[in-house]
Amino acid sequence: MTEKYKALAEVLFPNPAYTPESLEEKYPKRDLPEGAKVTRLGPSPTGFIHLGNLYGAFVDERLAHQSGGVFFLRIEDTDDKRYVEGAVETIIDSLGFFDINFDEGATKDGDVGAYGDYTQSHRGVIYAVIAKKLVEQGDAYPCFLTEDEISEIRAKQEASKLNPGIYGEYAPYREVTAEEAKALIDQGKSYVIRLKSGGSPVSGESESEVKRFTVMDAIRGELSMPVNFQDTVILKTTGIPTYHFAHVVDDHLMRTTHVVRGEEWLPSLPIHVELFEKLGWEPPIYCHTAQLMKIGDDGNKRKLSKRHDPELSLDYYRKMGYHPEAVREYLLTILNSNFEEWRGENPDASIDEFEFTTEKMSNSGALFDLDKLNDVSKDVMLKIPAGEIIDFLEGWAKEFRPDVLGIFDDKEYLAKIIDLGRNDAKPRKDLIYAEQMVQFISYFFDDLYGDSAWIAKGAIESPEDGEPMAIFSEGLYPKEGFPEEVPAEDVPVILNKYLETYDHADDQSQWFDKIREIATELGYAAKPKDFKKEPDKYKGHVGHVSTVIRVALMGRSQSPDVHTIQQILGEERTRSRIASNI
Ligand code: GLU
Question: How far is the CA of 275 from the centre of ligand 1 (A)?
Answer without folding.
Answer: 17
